[in-house]
């Protein structure tokens, strides 16, 4: 199951998992876009439209996955929102609460339901899509960064509580070229990419490959980790 899977990083994750032989349920708010994604993914995919932070939607998704396939081995919490661009001190508390509701509570809700419905008996994996913004201060992504820092801590807490049956890890990308992040690089991509040792910004497949690894037997002794996927930009932090 991949939340926020109708476009961008989420859709690329779904493509990668379908390609390796998984049956994948994707979720998203836009029913029409979600239907197009499912049509592209093929017969081993299904979609359930709704808001990721809605408990009724969470329950419906888990129920439909189990009804269709009888199991729920891997959960990828990719759904996220960043309606507040700028310093944290400029963000109204109600808006910060909404960011947390979507970026943190939705991941907690889906993980809790996956655990109680299947994984507490059969095991599995959870992968949370965090961000490098959650690993340090950001002058422009204050609310988003604080929520992603909470998601990193949630990853560690769930990894501790759900072991040994369920492995819980996170991925923290830097700037990835999607519509969601377009405000960060459009008109400025060449200059921004010059600060990355690998010479480019990320693309969705960079994240999808790491998610596939974390949800595979190759990562069988990894839990509670946040894998930074940043093209090396963290290596140059603070060097001018």
UniProtKB/TrEMBL annotation:
NCBIfam families: PRK07231.1 (NF005559)
Alphabetical list of Pfam families matching this protein: adh_short_C2
InterPro entries for this protein: NAD(P)-bd_dom_sf (IPR036291), Sc_DH/Rdtase_CS (IPR020904), SDR_fam (IPR002347)
UniProt feature coiled coil, ranges: none
Natural source organism: Streptomyces chisholmiae
Family as reported in the entry's similarity comment: Belongs to the short-chain dehydrogenases/reductases (SDR) family.
Classification via Gene3D superfamilies: NAD(P)-binding Rossmann-like Domain (3.40.50.720)
Name of the protein described by the UniProt record: SDR family oxidoreductase
